[in-house]
Amino acid sequence: MNDLYATQRAMRNMRKLAMQRGVIAILDVGTSKIACLVLRFDGPDQFSGGDEIGSMAGQSGFRVIGAATTRSRGVHFGEVDAMQETERAVRTVIQAAQKMANLRVDHVMACFSGARPRSYGLAGSIDLQDSVVSENDVSHVLAACDVPDFGDEREVLHAQPVNFALDHRSGLGDPRGQIGNQLAADMHLLTVDAHVVGNLLHCIKRCDLEVAGLVSSAYASGVSALVEDEQELGAACIDLGGGATGLSIFMKKHMIYSDSLRLGGDNITSDISQGLQVPMATAERIKTFYGGVVATGMDDRDMIEVGGDTGDWEHDRRTVSRAELIGIMRPRVEEILEEVRDRLDAAGFEHLPSQQIVLTGGGSQIPGLDGLATKILGQQVRLGRPMRVQGLPQAATGPAFAASVGLCLNAAQPQDEWWDFDIPVEKYHARSLKRAVKWFKDNW
Amino acid sequence: MQQVEPAIAAPRRDPAPSRISYKLQRLMLRSGFKRFLRVGLPVLLITATIGIVLGDAGRREAIELKIAELRRSIEERPEFMVKLMAIDGASDAVATEIREGLPLEFPMTAFDLDLEAMRAGIAEMDVVANVDVIVRSGVLQINVIERTPAVVWRSYQEVVLLDSGGHRVIPIAGRADYPDLPLIAGQGADKHINQALDVLTATGPLAARVRGIERMGERRWDLVLDRSQRILLPEQNPIAALERVIALSKAQDLLARDLTIIDMRNGHRPTIRIADSAIEELRRIRALK
After folding, report:
1. Measured between CB atoms, does A311 come within 8 Å of chain B?
2. Which ipTM did the prediction report?
3. Which of the four, A195, A242, A365, B116, has the lowest number of CB atoms within 10 Å?
4. pLDDT for A211-257, tens place per residue?
5. pLDDT at residue A423 in the model
6. What's the CATH number where A145 sits?
7. What CATH number is attached to the domain comprising A271?
């Protein structure tokens, strides 16, 4: 656990360094595309205020000066599958973004959708020594949370304090300076597969970049696609990506649950490819141009040329009606949405005061998806696009860039994590004392 | 049925940059690296080239030779050549001396003439009051203004001509060469030539008898007359004293008498010294009485 604490802290320091230099890159490693945005910050003072969120929710302090996307290679289900390929794709996108920004970037914040995230709710409490809560007490109570045994092969990606309670007064945002006897904290812990993270970090390192932070893309999408009152009252953000569908539930401006399905737009494409006997590239093209989930009578007459280059005339001149295409796509979309429904039910989403569901990600651009989603997920469904940030090119404002934009916002206004608080004092002392004793034992 | 060959699609070119080009681009984006390429590298290259070229002694010599040759060829153009020297305003002797002092071989280029040094060398000559040295249309023109000698000064070392300012003009063999110039003697006399000339002008009727004027003890004048007579003039107002002597001489024919010294140093008590023969004559006359 301490090991991880150290690496996350190192990343956080790297982020601070990048803030001081004023330039940081955002890397969204997705299954269908890899996007890179280069951000320039106007100054570190903009963000040192801490307590209050600045104007425009803190997003006014930075500007996107470089943006690039490339077709993703070697990524499946949001996980690195072929390292060399992924490295090349990252290199492509970083180079293009650098060229546009005319700046060299050294620090990069990355997000990814796969790696089987798993959410844990932790709780801990301590008795306060003196009645006023100090910063040290906060780190103590966070350290006092009983961490479940999530296995050796997993790493903590997020550990965010969600709620503080002081003597039966719950729902405190910031307990510091308040008076009470017992301090309790709830923490949301998100773990992912360690190997997947390791592979991604290795790919980025191979491009001579320093990792300044790792974020789950479901969380990033939620940050950018949910509006403020949705985050406050409770809402779920569904990020329909290429290889994985991210799921994050927000409440009181904190993510309280996150999950990921290994299903996405690529499954729809492969269904089309198999159903129409066309290559994946053609299937992807047909899906994006003619795809839909609700067929009308008009669609029976709307013929699509499938094409082909076998040389067989009969084969190459095939046409399908749009209704057929919808017939292939709809079951898969329904399957994804039903799976999402199951996950939401498992998480206890129905107990939230607000049942808002926001669909975002590239998959949410399927025409008629909102109608279908309403039938499966409930009445309060809307399609979400990411917030507007300064300098973002028009091509990168679509819902497919929700995670990228969310990552920008996260870079500018990071959520407090467990490792942002100092190691509790006596633990630290015990360790250093132990280390000193060990040194004497080793050397004398 | 004919077998249809599937068209072999050209392999898609990978848009990814190679590792080297990626690193190169990042290097180029480094702040300062471009500036180094633009400024530092050319400077370094030029310095290195010059250093390598000049590092070899033979090559350096060849370059120096080439430069000297080029210089020579420009200097020896007819426009810059000086063919003769003209000396104006100098007497023949001085002109000859100047010519001997400047061993120049004409024709020569104007670049090799050090006019300032030549001017200083000529101006060092005592006889020269002022000199201009210029090169004009192939002629080295030397304009000399000579000092005009005013007196002959006989000092312990030499006999020399002085101008009215007391500056040496030229040493001479004997006083007889310049009979028309007054003779001045004594140490420190050259500092007070003006006063001496004033005294000499004031001699008036005595002028024919004046042999010269001598500076005594570097403070006052003695007017020396023929027949070994001497008028000792005071330090202050020597001319008034002289006029008194002249008046006495006119009235009583003083200077025609046999005396050697008229001492006017003390105005209240002028004194005369009679010559030895005159004293004996006086005694003889007294003895006769």
Report:
1. yes
2. 0.74
3. B116
4. 998 999 999 999 999 998 999 899 999 999 888 999 999 998 899 99
5. 66
6. 3.30.1490.110
7. 3.30.420.40
Q: Which domain holds residue A308?
A: 265-330
Cα A160 from Cα A257, distance rounded (Å) = 11
The answer to whether residue A436 sits within a structural domain is: no
Dihedral in degrees, nearest 10, Cα atoms A415, A418, A420, A426: 160
Position A273: which residue type? Answer: S
What total number of domains does chain A contain?
2
CB contact under 8 A, B9 and A309: yes
Is residue A44 predicted with pLDDT exceeding 50?
no
Residue of A nearest to B27 (CA): A104
pLDDT tens for each residue of A381-433 = 999 999 888 888 888 899 999 999 999 988 888 888 877 776 665 555 566 77
- What pLDDT band is residue A17 in, cutting at 50, 70 and 90? confident
Pairing of the two strands B149-154 and B183-185: parallel
Distance from C-alpha of B40 to C-alpha of A325, rounded to nearest angstrom: 64
Q: Is it true that domain B149-288 has CATH number 3.30.230.10? A: no
Evaluate whether B153 touches B185 at the Cβ level (below 8 Å): yes
Contact B7 A102 (CB under 8 A): no
Predicted local confidence at residue A119, as pLDDT: 92
CATH topology of domain B78-146: Ubiquitin-like (UB roll) (3.10.20)
> How far does B41 lie from chain A, in Å, by closest CA?
22
Specify the 3-state DSSP secondary structure of A433: helix
